[in-house]
Amino acid sequence: MKRILMISTGGTIASVTGNNGLTPHLSSHELLECVPELKDICDIDVIELFKLDSTNIGPYHWVKMTETIRDHYQDYDGFVITHGTDTMAYSAAALSYMIQNTDKPIVLTGSQKSIYNRDTDARNNMIRSFIYASDDLSWGVHIVFDNKVILGTRAKKDRSKSFNAFRSINYPETASFIDYKLVHFIHRPSSTEPVHFYTKLNPSVFVLKLVPGMSGDILRYICGHYKGLIIEGFGSGGLPNTDDSLLEGVKEFLAEDGIAVFSTQVENEGSDLSVYEVGRIAQSLPGVVEGKDMTAEAIITKLMWALGQTDDVELCKQLFMKPVQFDRLVL
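The chain above was modelled as a monomer; its predicted structure follows.
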């Protein structure tokens, strides 16, 4: 049987109702006791890393997850991380950049209801996650949820309560379950490079969502406080040019060795700064890169990762533009 390490971090799946609502309380061993079928799938060891609502999970915790997998990588055939759903897509994207070229499956899963509930998705997601982690054809960082297997760089939570909470953005699911039968659609890519673990992130990233009529005054504060700026524009992307405040603010930010990523608020099909004048003006600025068809979660965590590797703007741009685990289409 395959040896799988389960890393528990809390989340709804491990929550019980307290005086102030749901809070993660169950231990990793208590989670396993709720799904006795898992003993027939694989041999499981557990590490209880955190007991956190995933709203409280961020860069520090991603580093700890990466270090835990790195330290046990040679001892196991795969890894399952139980995690809250609210920031699961961020964690999956972050781990995709921090653990590159892995031919072992690293699965994140959780649930919309506690595993203690009578009608819950928790057991189904747990069982399928361990099936996927134990399969010979499985690979890379994925979310397994509601019968879907989604790349960590392509996942997004788009429902706050329903069991089908996640979907893959601008890329197909890599596998799916029909009952307990796993069907692979996209097979492990051939790679001669060894697995590489990164444990440095720079969370100095600000996300600016444009709204009609926005002034560029906010950018005066961002300058000097943040190293990376992500601008979520409209449609294909770009900067409004009814006045010069936004453009001048971005120029000032870039002049202080910042890097700016232009993306779009539209989830599907991505940005294309080359289409309109408002986009081409932004595209021409030094220190600007484009998010294209990447998810917001992937853009944010990849920029944190790239900034964590270098202070050089041009090298940072190169790191950001290089595709990692199919996070952006190369046309």
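The chain has a mean pLDDT of 94.
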